[in-house]
Specification:
The structure is a homotrimer of 169-residue chains. By secondary structure, the first copy, chain A, is an alpha+beta fold. Chain A contains 3 helices and 6 strands, in the order αβαβαββββ. In chain A, strand 4 and strand 5 form a beta hairpin. The two termini of chain A are 18 Å apart.
């Protein structure tokens, strides 16, 4: 559990409806990353969103920063652009599996939720391996008809990440 | 398939409603284990519940017992307490991924279902590995507004479990 | 993304209803394979269905054929029979995990969708390993009350498959 992401009492029907919408959000988000559409990645976030990747040890200790920290569309787009332009890393395929979506609370129109993610990686001529396993802690805002992330904290268990983390999760 | 857990003909709308409720049960159950809230684990079971972890070979052969066998709240609470107090094993992080929830039948208010589970384990300074992969075979009772397990059979494929199985699945 | 499987604009409620039905299809399909009910496998397909397993590199290059290609019930049943009769390969357990079901489009009663799959394999006295990770690209027809596959393209990331691919995915 991440600080600030405790579970509150929820109306079951409302929580379920939110769960379905969040599941559909994850699927679109992951499809963008799995297909390498990195330029689309910032579009899943609000203008002043926070995006963070951090280890479970850090998260448990309440340490704010981590491996990656972005605040706002400018930083998200910079990061996406850097990845798209650099490609210094070996070509690889990624697949995201998101399960266990858990709605934690709804307050002022913002839905808090968590989910377990598993990112598998395949490098050319190598076996498919576990790249990163962890838990998303998210806050979603409803904008237009859909959801956007105003916060995403990716808390990974995988302390040994098998090469420099270049792609967002 | 586990003996006694065959699929029966079901009303599709009823089966779907049960599936959603079961998915939400799994998510809460797994969150408790992933967060190390071991004392909460017995709360997911009825008073006289059966909990068992057994290998697929054993299950296929119709052998009743396995690696772990608990009958009733007393044994479940004993086990939870033993784990909470001992901690002789190395610190580790666990993540549960539950997919493929399949409602098998509904009889006398008890819902039978299966689901595939994957438990990933991360030890300090090691890679994330597959700790246990298997199938839950469950019977749920509706108590108050929610579901409780009156039976859970964890049938694992992973015959070589990488160290003594201490945590419930 | 597979050519011909782009995402179109969909009514959200209709897409969600289709998603639920497709999730239930996957669960039944995977249960048949996980339980070794190989003779049931062709029953998930229409009379003239296409079934293909191919690598992501091939799929990205638009190459039509792959590791496995079946067209029509005859070829599907031949393949199922060959597997059931041969058993030249070592005994193994398989578990399928399907997540991230994404409805892509609905046209003329045919629903196009994708989903991420993970197949874990356990050989006797060995650890559970990732057998194949990939993405299903499917077209479903509604026949009777249920869904049948008229096309399934299994696009795998796992380029090194750890032994000859005998089982369908």
């Amino acid at each position: 559990m991440l600080e600030g992401f405790g579970k509150t009492v929820l109306d079951p029907a409302e929580a379920r409806a939110q769960r379905f919408a969040i599941e559909e959000f994850h699927v679109e988000y992951c499809a963008a990353l799995d297909e390498g559409r990195i330029a689309d990645w910032p579009l899943f976030f609000t203008e002043d969103a926070i995006y963070r990747i951090t280890g479970r040890e850090n998260a448990d200790a309440g340490l704010p920063v981590g491996l990656v920290y972005c605040e706002g569309q400018g930083m998200l787009r910079d990061r996406a652009l850097a990845i798209a332009k650099t490609e210094m890393f070996a070509p690889r395929y990624l697949l995201h599996y998101v399960t266990n979506v858990r709605v934690l609370g709804i307050a002022d129109g913002i839905v808090s939720a968590q989910a377990n993610y598993l990112v598998l990686q395949t490098l050319v001529d190598e076996k498919t391996t576990i790249h990163q396993a962890g838990c998303y802690f998210d806050r979603f805002a409803r904008v237009g008809g859909g959801l956007l992330l105003c916060e995403r904290h990716c808390v990974y268990d995988t302390l040994l990440i098998d090469n420099s983390l270049v792609m967002p999760v």
